Task: inverse folding
């Protein structure tokens, strides 16, 4: 069965600084029509930054939609036309003041397929060197480090609940285990 839905018409109903909202009329697999509303997001990149002592760098940041401080890995949105690898190098430098000598791509995730087209590209950064942080003027966060095994345990038991952080930690752990096992 072909599950593809065909866009019959598209109407932008909100145009914000970050997000755009669309209401589309679609043709369904059975020939009927329906409405799909979705949020267009420019995408983002996130990084598991691992130092030579086996610590991962996390940050605490107030996340307005949830009205609470969330612990997560460094991340940021893509600028128009920006390569995700360039974006995450910029974000790592801005948020924790680090550069990495080694980068591994961990693929991407689609954080909420029911209402947004956002794609988040995940990376593992190693061989870190540190300099000064330079946050955006409206960005307030508190970076800290944690042993990688402890961060992984927190992701597994729910103490870390940010989706990109959980996914990236487990993908990084798998890659490092595969490297060890040759």
Result:
């Amino acid at each position: 069965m072909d599950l593809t839905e065909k866009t019959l018409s598209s109407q932008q109903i909100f145009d914000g600084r970050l997000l755009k909202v669309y209401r589309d009329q679609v043709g369904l697999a059975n020939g009927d029509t329906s409405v799909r509303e979705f949020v267009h997001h420019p995408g983002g990149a996130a990084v598991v930054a691992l130092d030579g002592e086996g610590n991962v760098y996390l940050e605490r940041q107030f996340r307005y939609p949830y009205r609470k401080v969330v612990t997560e890995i460094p991340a940021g949105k893509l600028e128009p036309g920006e390569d995700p690898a360039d974006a995450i190098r910029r974000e790592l430098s801005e948020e924790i003041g680090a550069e990495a000598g080694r980068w591994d791509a961990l693929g991407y995730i689609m954080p909420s397929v029911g209402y947004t087209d956002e794609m988040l590209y995940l990376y593992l950064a190693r061989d870190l060197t540190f300099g000064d942080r330079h946050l955006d003027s409206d960005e307030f966060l508190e970076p800290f480090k944690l042993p990688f095994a402890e961060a992984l345990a927190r992701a597994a038991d729910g103490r870390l609940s940010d989706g990109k952080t959980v996914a990236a930690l487990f993908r990084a752990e798998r890659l490092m285990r595969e490297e060890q096992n040759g």
Q: What stands out?
A: The helical segments are 84-96, 148-157, 163-180.
